[in-house]
Amino acid sequence: MIFNTQDLLNFPDRYRAHFINSLSGYKSANLVGTRSPNGEENLSIVSSVFHLGAHPPLMGVIFRPHSVRRDTLENILQTKTYTINHVNSLIWKEAHQTSARYDEHQSEFDATGLTPYYHDNFGAPFVAQSQLKIGLELCQHQTIELNKTVLVIGKIVHVEVDDNAVAEDGFINLEQLDTIAVSGLDCYHTTSKIARLEYAKPNKPATTKA
Amino acid sequence: MIFNTQDLLNFPDRYRAHFINSLSGYKSANLVGTRSPNGEENLSIVSSVFHLGAHPPLMGVIFRPHSVRRDTLENILQTKTYTINHVNSLIWKEAHQTSARYDEHQSEFDATGLTPYYHDNFGAPFVAQSQLKIGLELCQHQTIELNKTVLVIGKIVHVEVDDNAVAEDGFINLEQLDTIAVSGLDCYHTTSKIARLEYAKPNKPATTKA
């Protein structure tokens, strides 16, 4: 079936949201942890975290223009620190539940039963139940004028991960960590590894890694 | 195990690339199809496509500062059109192979055996073997000064997908389409649906969709 620009515009709003959110393919499932300047904790699930570069180590995340997620964005802009925590198959329902529109002063940690965890003097809360915890410092943010979403770029300053999941070459085995994936707005998936492939070269067919 | 900023900087380059590329979680696996102003086709795998908004329907993709992928970026900037095509489990090796540094005038379609497919007068080639094909028009691009990567934002103007995979509410069943996921630089995964969850509300526990 083929849809053109006009077809997409004619979709009812919720239908379009489900459809367009499905188009990019599988997405990462992460919880963003923050604290307001007066110490109130905030936690929200996002499927918009993406790799931006390894050297310096950078991650991007997109925030919607108007939503409950603005608490998280405001905290990041004010405190310059936040955490990104992988969602796993033991906490996926609690993670999804953080997207409910709780009152401004209600902590999503308390509301969902997820446990805040602090490391040394890093200001933002990690999620104790997450098996891969990342601490970031805000580098820059900008509004995408096309739709008023906000792109936030942070530098990775802290990573906490089970060493058994880190391969000799630095690759992290996400299945061992029980990390899950998202599709669309609300569908959660476990994964099964097909294989890793060697660095591709023009005169050599694709080869699986031992 | 805990890594701080200095630990990450001390990693050998390849180790750091594998490690940091794994941190965001599962990524989408897509092939970007373009054609140069004089008609030469180009195809490259990317794991950096992300959802940017449903209304207007927008997608983002990050291109690295210096790599074989610049052909694709140059074509997009010059022709303003490109395609994004889901990678599935029948073409994952061919898709990965498009990342080899082929000569500038060598088509990755020819080199890998993937088949270009054109629709009406849309200028960029789709991948015939892909089960979800998206046509985009360039909206804007910008260099992220922190690391000289380039963010390209496009408007979705064409979507081709099997109707059986589109649910009543607009959600697209990616497993039915055989779409796969990537982790790190080179690991490919199939997925298994856990469940879809209802829109979260503060006074209601997370509920699976029927």
Give me some keywords for this one.
homodimer, 210 residues, alpha+beta, Pnp Oxidase, Chain A, seven-stranded antiparallel sheet, three-stranded antiparallel sheet, globular, Split_barrel_FMN-bd (chains A, B), FMN (chains A, B), Flavin_Rdtase-like_dom (chains A, B)
Please characterize this protein's 3D structure.
By secondary structure, the first copy, chain A, is an alpha+beta fold. Chain A has one domain: Roll (Pnp Oxidase, Chain A). Chain A contains five helices and 13 strands. In chain A, the strands form three sheets. A seven-stranded antiparallel β-sheet of chain A has the order 4-3-7-10-11-6-5. In chain A, a hairpin with an 8-residue loop joins strand 8 and strand 9 (126-127). The longest helix of chain A has 11 residues, at 13-23. The interface between A and B is large, with 111 and 111 residues. Chains A, B: This is Flavin reductase.
Q: What's the shape of chain A?
A: globular
Q: Secondary-structure element sequence of chain A?
A: EHHEEEEEHEHHEEEEEE
Q: Can you say what the CATH homologous superfamily of chain A is?
A: Electron Transport, Fmn-binding Protein, Chain A
Subunit arrangement of the protein = homodimer
Name the average pLDDT of chain A.
Answer: 96
**SS field, number of helical segments of chain A:** 5
**What is the count of β-strands of chain A?**
13
Largest interface: A-B, 111 and 111 residues
Q: How many individual domains of chain A?
A: 1
CATH topology of chain A: Pnp Oxidase, Chain A
Family (chains A, B): Belongs to the flavoredoxin family.
Protein name (chains A, B): Flavin reductase
Cofactor (chains A, B): FMN
InterPro entries (chains A, B): Flavin_Rdtase-like_dom, Split_barrel_FMN-bd
